[in-house]
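Sharing in case it's useful to others searching the archive later.

Someone asked me privately for the predicted structure of Arginine--tRNA ligase, so I'm posting the question and my answer publicly. Question first, with the sequence:
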Amino acid sequence: MNIEDKLVVSVINGLKALYGQDVPVAQVQLQKTKKEFEGHLTLVVFPFLRISKKGPEQTAQEIGEYLKANEPSVAAFNVIKGFLNLTIASSAWIELLNNIHADKQYGIIAATDNSPLVMIEYSSPNTNKPLHLGHVRNNLLGNALANIVMANGNKVVKTNIVNDRGIHICKSMLAWLKYGNGETPESSGKKGDHLVGDYYVAFDKHFKAEVAGLMEKGMTKEEAEAASPLMNEAREMLVKWEAGDPEVRSLWAKMNNWVYEGFDETYRKMGVSFDKIYYESNTYLEGKEKVVEGLEKGFFYKKEDGSVWADLTPEGLDHKLLLRADGTSVYMTQDIGTAKLRFADYPIDKMIYVVGNEQNYHFQVLSILLDKLGFEWGKSLVHFSYGMVELPEGKMKSREGTVVDADDLIEEMVSTAKETSNELGKLDGLTQEEADNIARIVGLGALKYFILKVDARKNMTFNPKESIDFNGNTGPFIQYTYARIQSVLRKAAEAGIVIPSEIPVGIELSEKEEGLIQMVADFAAVVKQAGEDYSPSIIANYTYDLVKEYNQFYHDFSILREENEAVKVFRLALSENVAKVVRLGMGLLGIEVPDRM
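And my answer, the predicted structure tokens:
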């Protein structure tokens, strides 16, 4: 039982003893004491005035006296207006540390057979180009969210829907046929996703040249775009693909496989994985079936041109297209089809989509449609909506090839980490292999932490140089503190000091040490809060605050040089548990922490 729970029970007993009335647990509000007052926890007394029939100060004084006499964990108290500030005894803090020390996975709740199943969709790449900085934010958020939802005792299925069909894919295919001279990943030494992406850019370049040529002949921009032979060829290719043309389908399969191999390598580097991948080429037909079924049941209606629509005006929205007049499907149709396949594969209790905020309206509509079509989790689906990520230089465009490529970014982060670590002498005395591994851990940690510490809903600017700083609110600063604690623990072990499973309670703690235990204990509540709010940034910023607090403690107090043996062992145990919580917290964000640095 933690300190707060113990106090709540004692307060309820005290109110019964003092005023003869039972009070519900919900009325007992404990909060952290504000910095400017003395104490650790503050009890709000106002809800009890009706039963005490006394003023706030007097009521607080009486409850304080009762607790000091009857609750061993209360060492002292003071009253400020209607607030009772309680100072917790050192022995209670050490007991709390012992509880945390005994729990290897402190703050993490394991799922059981009866836990709800949450499916989380993230990544959702197109197969006509490599993953870029926007995908990096999406993947890191999706992966962290999956870890956090799992740490709150849910079963989780991580899933990806690959956008592997449509006009954009045909553009890359056509450009490869026309200008590729049979180039392959093997012949060129390029990753497959980069190779296909280069042809997407090539298509755009040739298309723009064609349009410019036609405009010189007196056409408007719109006429020229409609008349472009290249664009018409791409459209014809799409029609052939839909009709199952064997030649087009075989080229499509070949080029997509190049892309998947490339994606897999990038996912591996990022430390991201999926339990199940769905492909739009399989799901869009399922979606059509569901829409036709909805049409028969009268949920949807058909226009004279044969297109199928949903009327969402009763829900305060507009009319939404579900099937075009030529029978081809739109994104919404595909999402309905994917939902159908997923529901057949898994008994989903909750569905979370990690998709950028430009799709907010799409998911509002999808939720209503899935609910109408009888998907139990439709109504309560969560659109985890996040903002754009840009570089200090500004916006990115994939058609023009000005996108920041995920692979290049990861490579740049790792080499910057190596440079910075070398300059600071943090890789001295390590083998080449160890130095390379630490550069990888630090570079990726810097990237992940910088992106995840920002509230996901906000647009953000990613600054590679700033992210790799070893000071301030950065991944490397947190990783370095973890490595520093590991070094202290190694020295203690070399000196033959053993940290017992239970620290004896007889020592007096300083305010800084008590505060640090309180912060470590907060981790469980932080994980819960991050799960309720779907917010990885809560864990990132908590971890930074904890590390900052520990560094002050490390600076102000001796650990290995402490002469009192019991105090030395306590400080080692405290350091070990700070490191454990840092490792668990960073682990939830998908970030590794190195033992040496």
